[in-house]
Design goal:
seven-stranded parallel sheet; 38% helix; globular; 246 residues; 14% strand
Length: 246
């Protein structure tokens, strides 16, 4: 497989970037910031960039907004403001380093609340808005860890988010909203600052993601690690987990 290869729908209708309005959760730093910049570079008219704290307005076409994706009232408030979007990027996420048998369950719940229910909460709020701006697009930022475990609650939340993405895609098909799952192993962001392994440039992944939006791609396997893991899902379990081999 080559870069940016995943599931393609032959009948898919892409969402134009030129002149569009987008909203990126977690858009003040890391991959979210790269997505904001790439959308603008590709011709977006305006991008709402959300974060959990107030951010300065750095560019005329960027509208910074305070959003907590775990809070119903916060999401509803933003949905009343950003009524002109045709592109939604669900990027906000957390990783708390939660060993599945040892971490406080409240920490694992917090990961689920942001990484799973945050996507559902924001998507529910914006689905009617996207319906009124068809064709429209949602990108859910997932992970190669949607498919392979490392013994933590984070992977549980990403696997659940992948399943939710597939369900959301089916429900929004008729209203003209294409839902894209973005899978990537490691990007060079704050979230992976403590990981000493090769990492992808968020700007490169953002360019792939914008291409997927415009082409109506349903799934992006953005790096070699994600493509390798996905390819092994139908094989023997020990291909993914060599430690299980006897």
């Amino acid at each position: 497989m080559t870069a940016n290869e995943g599931i393609r729908d032959p009948g898919a209708v892409g969402t134009p970037i030129e002149g569009s309005v987008a909203l990126v959760t977690g858009g003040s730093r890391g991959f979210g910031r790269a997505m904001v910049e790439e959308l603008l570079a590709s011709g977006a008219r305006k991008v709402y960039a959300t974060g959990r704290s107030e951010q300065p307005k750095l560019e005329e076409r960027i509208v910074p907004l305070v959003l907590d994706v775990t809070d119903d009232d916060s999401v509803a408030t933003i949905a009343r403001q950003a009524i002109d979007i045709s592109i939604l990027v669900n990027n906000a996420g957390i990783a708390l380093g939660t060993p599945v048998l040892d971490a406080p369950l409240d920490d694992i719940r917090a990961e689920l609340e942001t990484n799973l229910f945050g996507i559902l909460r924001v998507t529910r709020a914006f689905a009617p808005i996207l319906a009124s701006h068809s064709p429209s697009a949602i990108v859910n930022v997932l992970s190669a860890l949607s498919w392979i475990a490392a013994g933590r609650g984070y992977e549980i939340s990403k696997a659940a988010a992948w399943s939710a993405t597939n369900s959301i895609r089916l429900r929004l098909l008729e209203q003209g909203t294409t839902v894209t799952a973005l899978h990537v192993a490691l990007m060079d962001t704050d979230l992976t600052a403590g990981v000493d392994r090769p990492k992808e440039d968020p700007r490169v992944i953002a360019r792939q993601t914008v291409d997927a939006i415009t082409s109506g791609q349903l799934e992006v396997l953005a790096d070699e690690r994600s493509r390798t893991i996905k390819a092994h899902l139908s094989g023997d379990l020990t291909e993914l987990y060599p430690q299980l081999a006897r």
